[in-house]
Amino acid sequence: MQSIAEQIAEIAETRSGGLDPMHEAIDADKLAELASAMEVHGWVGAPVVSHGEQALTGSHRMRAAREVGDVSVPRVDVSELCEAYGLDWDGVLGEHGDDWYWAAAALRDLLPREVVIYLGYDVNGVA
């Protein structure tokens, strides 16, 4: 049986730039720590979950990558993530009035807990 990291890696892609963080980096210390780590190791952490060019997770990691520059960002499209775990993103989105923010927040309760933890899936810092 594959680990969560292996399952997510199968549907993730990596490219530079093009994503907008969900919100500003709230924790300056966390941002500085991530930026320092990325200067040495490149991207740190799980892939960012995205809806088009909007990042739904990883706001601090996204900001740190921008500060460092030239850091490729792994991402997984929320539709593919949902499909991999038997969910219908369009259905979840429709249930929330096509508001991707609240639909993304609902995924915390719909995705398997291990996936939520691995992805660091939170919206505006609420896990």
What structural keywords apply?
7 helices; Conserved hypothetical protein from pyrococcus furiosus pfu- 392566-001, ParB domain; disordered C terminus; alpha+beta; 4 strands
Q: TL;DR?
A:
Helices cover 50% and strands 11% of the residues.
Question: What would you say this structure looks like, in words?
Answer:
By secondary structure, the protein is α+β, with helices and mostly antiparallel strands. It has a single domain (4-119), classed as Conserved hypothetical protein from pyrococcus furiosus pfu- 392566-001, ParB domain (Alpha-Beta Complex). Helix content is 50%, strand content 11%. It has seven helices and four strands, in the order αβαββαβαααα. It has helices at residues 4-11, 28-41, 59-68, 78-84, 89-95, 100-110, 113-119; strands at residues 13-15, 48-51, 54-55, 73-77. It has a four-stranded mixed sheet with strand order 1-4-2-3. Strand 2 and strand 3 form a beta hairpin. Mean pLDDT is 85; it is low at 123-127.
Please give the oligomerization state of what you see: single chain
Unreliable parts = 123-127
Backbone structural class: alpha+beta
Task: Give the overall pLDDT as a whole number.
Answer: 85
In terms of DSSP E residues, the strand content is: 5-15%
CA gyration radius, whole angstroms:
14 Å
- Major sheet: arrangement of strands: 1-4-2-3
Ordered list of secondary-structure elements with their pairings:
Blueprint: H1 4-11, E1 13-15, H2 28-41, E2 48-51, E3 54-55, H3 59-68, E4 73-77, H4 78-84, H5 89-95, H6 100-110, H7 113-119
Parallel strand pairs: 2-4
Antiparallel strand pairs: 1-4, 2-3
